[in-house]
């Protein structure tokens, strides 16, 4: 869980209906805040050592939590690094926890999709404080430990309140549920050489809640080699239809130091049509404002097109509205360009929708003007006249370096940061 606490500037709008101001965390004394701040340099220096020890102990004492954590991120060290960064950032913002509201929303939505419960927090707190004490040694006296206990409690209260709000909202939504619901794969559709769409239908055949375009679900599969379940988040790649969900998953092979995707391979290889899996309610605050009539520029790299297809289809389904959409997509080539024919058809049938597709290289049979428009990576000099529009909102999803590059380009073209919305699933370290 807290491994996703990545407190950086993301420019995500505050979209969750439950607001941060409804939360009343238990306070810290001035002295406790000073003490927490005094530990910032030590956290900066020893943070990863602390959090690595923390995870090791936590999972030794509570092996059931392996069902909740992404074990690959443990092995690659991403999770300890992200948590260390988060603890440090929390200490830096101890005087103004509201500065963390964007991160609390993003992480809270992810926690809710994983079924994190209030009684998980004391367990995490106990092991985190023990690891801080062990690594920093005599520097951590009782006063320091008490200050960190109070600080941790404050943060835990914020998350618990936020997540309880999401759960309550979820069960009140028609068709909603809490925790995992059993689904089966009702259809498997290859979308490119490496992406397969999975249509997921609830086993109980009951109605599904409607969701907002851009939201994701967690799916959970049993991984025999680990002896535990592993959850992963996937954006919903179609518009809401109350009958089934669609996720579109890229198969991740091992590459350089990155291990093969544990769940993406299980899904592609070992989950035929008819197979069952656990699915969470839809969550996530990277969502399209469906009531806006101003232009939407949907920018995606590779498999990052999944939430964009949901947004695009939702916009065009709204009768009587001709909201302008520019769909900017970058792929390595046509063989890995998913949902290509859907996009071609949507553009042909909807004069308010236009597209610009970049391929890094041309594969055999890729046709200029039909499959793609430009060779290379997204080049704003080539598309700014078409894609920089007054009052537009810009939605970005794709590999981290792709998102960083597009964000930077948009800002340098004068787009206001409030208009730029990014989906951030990964850690800040990739
Ligand atoms: N929200 C998230 O955190 C997402 C993360 N990812 C991660 O990214 C990985 C790669 O996804 P793929 O579909 O294989 O994408 P990819 O590696 O095929 O890249 C897609 C396109 O993005 C562009 N791109 C890549 N790096 C760039 C850079 N540094 N600057 C500018 N443009 C760049 C290129 O045009 C490339 O063709 C996934 O395996 C996943 O782990 C992908 C989608 C969403």
TrEMBL record:
PROSITE patterns: FAD_FR, GLOBIN
Domain spans labelled Globin: 27-164
EC numbers, comma separated: 1.14.12.17
InterPro entries: FAD-bd_FR_type (IPR017927), Flavoprot_Pyr_Nucl_cyt_Rdtase (IPR001709), FNR_nucleotide-bd (IPR039261), Globin (IPR000971), Globin-like_sf (IPR009050), Globin/Proto (IPR012292), OxRdtase_FAD/NAD-bd (IPR001433), Riboflavin_synthase-like_b-brl (IPR017938)
UniProt GO BP: cellular response to nitrosative stress; nitric oxide catabolic process; response to toxic substance
Gene3D superfamilies: Globins (1.10.490.10), Nucleotide-binding domain of ferredoxin-NADP reductase (FNR) module (3.40.50.80), Translation factors (2.40.30.10)
Keyword Flavoprotein applies: yes
Protein name (record): nitric oxide dioxygenase
């Amino acid at each position: 869980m807290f491994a996703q606490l990545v407190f950086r500037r993301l420019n995500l709008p505050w979209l969750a209906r439950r607001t941060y101001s409804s939360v009343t965390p238990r306070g810290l004394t001035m002295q406790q805040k000073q003490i927490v701040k005094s530990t910032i340099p030590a956290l900066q220096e020893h943070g990863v050592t602390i959090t690595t020890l923390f995870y090791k102990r936590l999972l030794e004492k509570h092996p059931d939590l392996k069902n909740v954590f992404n074990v690959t991120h443990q092995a690659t060290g991403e999770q300890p690094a992200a948590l260390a960064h988060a603890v440090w950032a929390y200490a830096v913002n101890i005087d103004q926890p509201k500065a963390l509201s964007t991160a609390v929303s993003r992480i809270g939505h992810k926690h809710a999709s994983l079924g994190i419960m209030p009684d998980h927090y004391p367990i995490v707190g106990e092991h985190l404080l023990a690891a801080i004490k062990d690594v920093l040694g005599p520097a951590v006296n009782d006063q320091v430990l008490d200050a960190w206990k109070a600080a941790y409690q404050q943060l835990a209260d914020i998350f618990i309140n936020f997540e309880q709000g999401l759960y309550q909202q979820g069960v009140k939504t028609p068709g909603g549920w809490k925790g995992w619901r059993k689904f089966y794969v009702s259809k498997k559709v290859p979308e490119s050489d490496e992406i397969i769409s999975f249509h997921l239908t609830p086993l109980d055949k009951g109605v599904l809640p409607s969701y907002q375009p851009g939201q994701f679900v967690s799916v959970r599969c049993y991984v025999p080699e680990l002896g535990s379940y592993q959850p992963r988040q996937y954006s919903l790649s179609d518009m809401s239809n109350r009958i089934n969900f669609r996720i579109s998953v890229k198969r991740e092979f091992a590459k350089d130091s990155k291990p093969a995707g544990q769940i993406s391979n299980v899904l592609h290889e070992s989950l035929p049509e008819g197979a069952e899996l656990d699915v969470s309610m839809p969550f996530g605050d990277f969502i399209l404002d469906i009531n806006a009539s101003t232009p939407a520029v949907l920018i995606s790299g590779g498999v990052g097109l999944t939430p964009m297809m949901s947004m695009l289809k939702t916009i065009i389904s709204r009768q009587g509205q001709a909201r302008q959409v520019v769909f900017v997509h970058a792929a390595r080539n046509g063989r890995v360009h998913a949902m290509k024919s859907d996009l071609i058809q949507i553009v042909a049938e909807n004069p308010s929708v236009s597209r610009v597709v970049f391929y890094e290289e041309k594969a055999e049979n890729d046709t200029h003007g039909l499959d793609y428009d430009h060779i290379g990576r997204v080049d704003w000099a080539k598309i700014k006249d078409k894609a920089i529009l007054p009052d537009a909102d810009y939605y970005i999803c794709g590999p981290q370096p792709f998102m960083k590059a597009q964000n930077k380009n948009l800002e340098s073209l004068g787009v206001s940061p409030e208009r730029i919305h990014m989906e951030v699933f990964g850690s800040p370290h990739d």
